Amino acid sequence: MSLNTSYITPNPRLGTGFGIFTSTFASLVVLLIILEQLGLARSLISQLIIVLPIVFYAAIGLYVRTTVVEDYFIAGQRVPPLYNGLALSANVVSGAGLLGLTGCFFFIGYDALPIALGWCAGLGLMSILLAPYLRKMGAYTLPGFFSIRFSSRICRVVTALLLIPPVLMLLVAELHIGRSVASIFLRSDPDFILQIGCLLLAVTVIFGGMRALTWTQCAQFIVVILSISVPLIAVSILVTNLPLPQLSFGTIIQQLAEMEAQRGVAPAFVQPLGDVLPGDDATQLNKPFGVMLESLGAGDFIALTLCFMLGAAVLPTQIPRMSTTPSVSSVRKSIGWAAIFVGFIVLTIPAFAAFTKFQVALDLLGIPASQIPDSGAVLSQLGLLEISPNSLDPALGNAEIAFYRDYVALMLPVLNDFPFVLIGLIGAAALAAVMAAAGGQLVTLANVIANDFYHPFHQTASPARRLLVARLGLIAIIIAAYLLTTQTEFDPLRLLIQAFSVSAGTFFAPLILAIWWKGLTQFGAICGMVVGLAVTALQFTVSPGVAILGVDPLTAGMLGVPLSLLAAIGGSMVSPKPSDETLEIVNEIGIPSGETVHARLTRLAARGKALKP
Amino acid sequence: MSMIDEAQRKRHAAGSFRLAFGVSGVIAALVFIIPNVAPALNEYAFFRFPLGLFASTQGMVFCLIAVIYWASSQQDRLDRKYGLTNEL
Q: Helix (H, G, I), strand (E, B), or coil: what is residue A187?
């Protein structure tokens, strides 16, 4: 028995620090608006609003640098629930999710809802099924959890290998979307912008690890919330006279439906998921906003919701964050906060898309190219849409306008003739979301290299050497992700969906069983993960575009989850029963009080009575 | 390990299991039932939204947040009942 109930005290000045950060950011925006009115060049405004916040994040990361192992890998386990919730939200939403989902709502209306619902429901599952038990285990990474659970280094290494594909897919999707958005504002070679972005991202997290990531993610998510709220509230007041866009856009849905019908946006019909989801190329509007389950079938709707729900619950970037709070109870509270923040984003995105589509239908659709207003020309100059004369009747026919899914969020301030700074503000929000999520993915992979590939085989290595390995690993990963981003062509939203699908298919069933079923063995867990990943990845690669048992390849994880479950149970049945020591660990993670299992094993290892976890 | 006898630990584990999977069932039911009945509800209006759309988005988000907080408070209560908490 241990009476170690270390009440770790969070920094009491956190609120002051983030208050100062928020005030500084708001002051920067107001100052730039004043300078714009005084004639400051738009190119300079773009650079300042995009670059200064990123430099600020890097400064926060450098300020909280650390050489303490617990600080570097689990932020010292003293992150208060509110701040842990902000960081969790940043991991779930991500830049690709924020821009991709806004674009999806713009193009296919409420048929984009499964992605948003999946985020919120996934947090619900995580809070009750997984988080308290992961916190009690106290592992630094997901492979670390499995390693302690089964007292197995093999399981650790296998899990670490299987974790790399989904996290790398997410990281590459973020870098891709970050490069696209930054290129709009900085007007330079996209690959050069990406190089600078990768450098700043690495500087932000390399010296402080999870500690730096936590505080920068909080700052970045504050920027996301503020930056998307300000222009949207302004538009809401202008259009509906109400400053609560999340609840006021109902007043324009009926008008929007009538305008869509007049402008030739045809009623939707059910298509496969892959055809319904808009791509990242310029596409004309062809589906109405205020309909649900009209272009997406009920089966695909459920599969996509499940994919994001189960994927968000076991996202490998979220697992280390379960160990950063002071207690089991506070990790549940932190997920409650995360649900509020993600819920806010989920309610804001449809409002953003609705007001944008309303303005587009009002100003741009159904008129000849020669009558397109100035806002259309500005959007075209910025590269946010493509306008071409009607192919049949160039003089009098309606202009053909194609929109880019990932740039839809940037259009709203232009359509309302707002100051250019507010366009930059949306860009800053997108890049903050990208940096927050990409930072999380980078730190997760670097920590896996240090804790799951290096440390188990070099138990006598000093803490400094372990941190050095994590930092070198981080550099290697960012270089690999940069090369993958520049050498390959893909749609970031589809990559995001596939990454959630792979996470769900690979880890959901084994992780649930590892917590809730004592009979799961190391062999069963490995079988479950390998089969889940193999089934999901095979459907992506062997049968792209072909649904198997009614499951679209994008949501292949929904085939992976049940097969992974069967494989994990089957593997456990045919392998030797778990040892008493293993069963004791399962009992222990169910008891929320006391020290973490990781801390207990570390203490025993110091006395030579156990291997270091 | 904490100071708790085996019978109490089993009762706590059983309570946690019932709560976790009961709440997961509620979340699954919310997420799958409401959007599927939404088209039928859309002929009614609420807050000037079609009711089905409002229930599937705003309603669903509010419900999920409420469920998460309720489940968290119930689990905290269960932990306190068995004296298994680190909170001051």
A: coil
Q: Cα-atom radius of gyration of chain A, to the nearest Å?
A: 24
Say how far apart CA A450 and CA A291 lie, in whole Å.
49
Q: Any CB–CB contact under 8 A between A1 and chain B?
A: yes
Region A536-548: mean pLDDT is: 79
Q: Are A5 and B84 in contact (CB under 8 A)?
A: no
Q: Per the CB < 8 Å rule, is B31 touching A121?
A: yes
- CATH number corresponding to A14-369+408-606: 1.20.1730.10
Is residue A239 a contact partner of residue A355, using CB atoms and an 8 Å limit? yes
Q: Which pLDDT score, from 0 to 100, does residue B80 have?
A: 92
Distances (CA, A) of A584 to A151, A521, B6: 11, 13, 12
What is the rounded (10 degree) CA torsion for A111, A112, A118, A123?
A: -130
| Chain B residues with CB-CB distance to A591 below 8 A | 1-2, 4, 9, 12, 84
How do strand B45-46 and strand A385-388 relate by DSSP bridges?
Answer: unpaired
Best interface-test mutation with B: which of A4, A93, A120 has the largest number of B CBs within 10 A?
Answer: A120
A588 in contact with chain B, both atoms CB, cutoff 8 A: yes
> Where do the domains of chain B lie?
11-81
3-state SS string for A303-334: HHHHHHHHHHHCCCCCHHHHHCCCCHHHHHHH
In tens, the pLDDT along A349-361 reads 999 999 999 999 9
Cβ distance A125 to B67 less than 8 Å, yes or no, reads no
Closest CB to B53 among A290, A332, A594: A290
Q: Is the pLDDT of residue A543 over 80?
A: no
Residues of A in contact with B16 (CB under 8 A): 590
Q: Which residues of A touch B30 (CB under 8 A)?
A: 121
Amino acid A540: pLDDT: 80
